[in-house]
C-alpha cells in the first residue's frame, strides 16, 4: 500500500489544488456530517455557483474522471481519480451530478449507439437529472425479489408496480429501473433494465420526508406506464447482469474519512475555545474525541487499501465491504460524539454558538442514521467479510 504520492501523482495533486483554489470560491462552512446520507441537499436544484463549478469540471472531463475521453470523460487512472476526489472533498467542492456515475457507464457498456447519443451528452452537461428505480417495499437488500412487472405489448412494455426510496425522483426527468419481465424465471433472471421518461402517463411520485426534514426520497407508482422496447438496455431478462455491472471506478469511499476529519477539526476548535473560557470538557469526552480521531485515521487507511488493490488491477471484495461498513459506522460515532461534547445545546436543530464553528450536531446525528443501511447494510457487509474474507460457512 502506497502512502506517498509518486512524483507524477504529486504533480497531478498540485494541478488539482491549483484548479480548485482558482475556481471554487464557495466556503465549506457547514458540518459535512449534517449533509451526509439521504438528505435533500444533493437533490436540490444547483445554485449558480455550483452549476458554474460543475461546468468547469465537465470542460476538463473531471466530472466523469473514469469515463473514456471519447464519451467526455478524463480517462484517469485509479490513483489519479483517487487524488482528484480526495482534493475535491477536502475543499468541500461538488464532485459530480446525481446518479451520473451509475447510469452513464451502464449505458456506455451495455447501451445501443442511439442510447449513447441520446443520453450521455445531456447527462454530462447537467441538462437532465436521473433517478434509480431499484428498491421496492418488499425488495431492498434482497433486490432480486423485485415484483414491478413489465409486460411486452408490441413495441412497448407496460409497467405496473411500485418503487421506493427513490432519491431525487421529484426532480428527475428520467429513471433507470429494473423490472420483472418473466415472472416464472428464477428471481435473478427474468429481470430487464429500462430507461423510463418520468413524464410518462401513469407515473405518480410521492415524497418521503426523513427525520431530518430532508426530501430526497420518494415512492414512485406505475400504472399501465408504456415504455418503448428500444429503451431497454441489454437483453430482455438479462437486466440483473446489466444492473450489477462492475465498473472501473474509484470506490474507496475517501469521502467518509474526510467528512469525519473535518467534523473533528470543527469539534476540536469548539473544545479549545470552550476550555479557554473556563468550561472544560471531561477527561472521558476528551478520550472519546481521541478515539474518533484514531478511527478516522483507520478509515482513511482502509480507503488507501482499496484504491491500492484497484491500482494493481485487482478487484477489492471484502476490503471494499470493510471500508464501507467502517466508514458508515464511523460517521455515526462522530455524530454521537458531537452530541455528547456539545451537551444540551447540541440537541437543538440550530444553535448560534455551535453554528459559528460550523457544527450542527442534532442534524448531523439525524442525517447519518441511514448510513449503515444505504448502499448495502452493515449486516450485508459483515456477511461478505465473513464468507468471502474469513471463509466462514454461509
Task: Describe, in plain words, how this protein is organized in 3D.
The protein is α+β, with helices and mostly antiparallel strands and 394 residues long. The chain has three domains: 7-107, Acyl-CoA dehydrogenase/oxidase, N-terminal domain (Butyryl-Coa Dehydrogenase, subunit A, domain 1), CATH 1.10.540; 128-243, Butyryl-CoA Dehydrogenase, subunit A, domain 2, CATH 2.40.110; 255-389, Butyryl-CoA Dehydrogenase, subunit A, domain 3. The chain is built from twelve helices and eight strands. It has helices spanning 7-23, 48-60, 78-91, 100-110, 113-125, 239-243, 255-276, 283-311, 318-342, 352-355, 361-367, 378-389; strands spanning 130-133, 149-153, 156-163, 174-180, 191-197, 203-208, 217-228, 232-233.
The global form is globular
CATH class type of the largest domain: Mainly Alpha
Supply Rg. 22 Å
Uncertain spans, ≥5 residues at pLDDT below 50? 34-39, 246-250
Mean residue pLDDT: 90
Oligomer: single chain
Element pattern in H and E: HHHHHEEEEEEEEHHHHHHH
Largest sheet: 4 strands, mixed
What portion of residues is helical? 40-55%
Amino acid at each position: 500500500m502506497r502512502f506517498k504520492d509518486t512524483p507524477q501523482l504529486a504533480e497531478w495533486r498540485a494541478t488539482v489544488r491549483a484548479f480548485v483554489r482558482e475556481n471554487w470560491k464557495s466556503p465549506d462552512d457547514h458540518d459535512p456530517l449534517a449533509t451526509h446520507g439521504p438528505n435533500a441537499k444533493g437533490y436540490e436544484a444547483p445554485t449558480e455557483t455550483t452549476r458554474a463549478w460543475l461546468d468547469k469540471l465537465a470542460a476538463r472531463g473531471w466530472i466523469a474522471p473514469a469515463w473514456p475521453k471519447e464519451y467526455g470523460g478524463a480517462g484517469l487512472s485509479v490513483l489519479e481519480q483517487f487524488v482528484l476526489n480526495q482534493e475535491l472533498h477536502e475543499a468541500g467542492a461538488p464532485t459530480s451530478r446525481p446518479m451520473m456515475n451509475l447510469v452513464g457507464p451502464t449505458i456506455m457498456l451495455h447501451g445501443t449507439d442511439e442510447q449513447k447519443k441520446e443520453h450521455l451528452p445531456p447527462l454530462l452537461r447537467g441538462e437532465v437529472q436521473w433517478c434509480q428505480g431499484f428498491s421496492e417495499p418488499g425488495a431492498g437488500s434482497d433486490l432480486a425479489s423485485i415484483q414491478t412487472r413489465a409486460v411486452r405489448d408490441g413495441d412497448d412494455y407496460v409497467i405496473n408496480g411500485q418503487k421506493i426510496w427513490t432519491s431525487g425522483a421529484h426532480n428527475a426527468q428520467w429513471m433507470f429501473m429494473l423490472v420483472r419481465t418473466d415472472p416464472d424465471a428464477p428471481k435473478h433472471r427474468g429481470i430487464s433494465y429500462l430507461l423510463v421518461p418520468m413524464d410518462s402517463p401513469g407515473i405518480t411520485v410521492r415524497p418521503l420526508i426523513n427525520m431530518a426534514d430532508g426530501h430526497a426520497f420518494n415512492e414512485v407508482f406505475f400504472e399501465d406506464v408504456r415504455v418503448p422496447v428500444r429503451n431497454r438496455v441489454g437483453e430482455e431478462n438479462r437486466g440483473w447482469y446489466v444492473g450489477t455491472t462492475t465498473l472501473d471506478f474509484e470506490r474507496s469511499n475517501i469521502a467518509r474519512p474526510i467528512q469525519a476529519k473535518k467534523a473533528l477539526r470543527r469539534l476540536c476548535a469548539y473544545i479549545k475555545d470552550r476550555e479557554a473560557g473556563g468550561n472544560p470538557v471531561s477527561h472521558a469526552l476528551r478520550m472519546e474525541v481521541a478515539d474518533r480521531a484514531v478511527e478516522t485515521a483507520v478509515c482513511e487507511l482502509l480507503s488507501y487499501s482499496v484504491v491500492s488493490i484497484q491500482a494493481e488491477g485487482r478487484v477489492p471484495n471484502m476490503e471494499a465491504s470493510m471500508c464501507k461498513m467502517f466508514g458508515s459506522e464511523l460517521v455515526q460515532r462522530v455524530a454521537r460524539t458531537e452530541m455528547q461534547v456539545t451537551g444540551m445545546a447540541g440537541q437543538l436543530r440550530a444553535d448560534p454558538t455551535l453554528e459559528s464553528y460550523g457544527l450542527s450536531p442534532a442534524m448531523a446525528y439525524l442525517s447519518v442514521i441511514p448510513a449503515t443501511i444505504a448502499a448495502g447494510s452493515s449486516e450485508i457487509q459483515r456477511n461478505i467479510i465473513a464468507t468471502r474474507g474469513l471463509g466462514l460457512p454461509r
